[in-house]
Amino acid sequence: MSTLWRLIATGFSVGISLFQLKSASAQTSAQISASSTSSANSSILELPTSTERVKVQQVQSLTLEQTLELAKKNNRELQVAVLTRERSQVALRQAQGAWYPNLALSTELVQVDNIENPTELNFETASSSPAFLAGTVELSYDVFTFGKRSARIKAAQKQLQFDQLELERLQQQIQLDVINAYYDLQEADEQVRISQAAVKNARLALRDARALEEGGLGTQLDIARATVQLKNAEQELIQAQTQQDLASDRLTRILGLSETIDVAAANPVEVGEEWNLSLEETIIQAFQNRAEFKQQLIQRDISLQQRRVTLSEVRPNLGLFANYQAVGELSQESTDGYAVGARVRWNFFDGGITAAAAKQEAVNAQIAEVRFADLRNQIRLEVEQAYKNLLANAKNIETATIALQQAEKALELVSFGYSQDASTQLEVNTAQNELTQAAGNRVRAITNYNRSLALLQRAIDRL
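and the corresponding structure tokens:
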């Protein structure tokens, strides 16, 4: 019986050692993410319950570079992508574990009833029934799996590569979203400034119209027109301020900042750099650099590896084993023995389940190929649209600048003529509207140029 107890003790000690080793490895991996997320989880999983926690209490002025850095640290989509990559790393380690042998311990306690007549069972006969304790320690290893093991490891490696590319793709996309949101906020800020100037000019025009009417040089019609001009300008200012608030909210959400913070743009509206690549060169670089193309090729490889894993289920598998077993009554010495051998498993027929699953993976590979071709057309269209918009907005900046200069000059002349009773209030209102429109057109031309530039930089992964 001592042999049996030694077997059980040995098996438990080996099992505990393996468990401690596995736990230490798991703990090390968990500490990597737990140290960075434990303090944040408490706030992520909470919802505000008071108005003070959602009320905007601070407006933070940020440059474009600062917003990009904040997005890298705080954006939730990027955090999910990082966690997804970590999950794939663990899955790869799980797949690689198939290269190692398995060590298992099993024990059984059996109460044997050898009473011939169960109706005459009493306490004495029941207690005298023998009890057997059996224990087995087995070491096994899959020698040949017909490609299942290597296919699973390759699929896990490809999935890790896919998730790494997805993280890189998402970083580029988040940067583009931040840049566009920042340009939206810049445009909204400029529109507020233009509208405020229009309101100021309209108030001055109304004051002048009343002064001229009191001096007998103006009419009530001039006052009415100036009043309408002022109210229209005030409405446009309210609309511009609303768009400014919405643009700030969108940028704040992308940056992952607190609900109590609003963002203001610190950079002025300026024309971005010139694009020094031709359309054809831009398209080629986009095809070479975009992570989406590599992802579709990797997805195709993953499907093909999964097909190998599926087909291995109906093909021969060879494994080796060695076990030691001891059996005996609790009150007597045990008998023991060992066995060494090989196992062959071959599932000849499963009703077509494996063939159907393999066909699905083959179709998934074809889907990835079709998506690759569709992605090529889609990215080329994006590049062409951004490139042509860039050229168009570059010309628009030149014409809008000239128009703004002429509108300023026209308003100055009309205002002087009105003060000399050589122009009408209607002409002043028209000149003010033209100036407001010209200023807005120039701002839109610049921000649209910058958006097209950012999209081209994104197309070749150069943000």
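(Above: one complete record from the training split.) The two ends are 73 Å apart (CA to CA).
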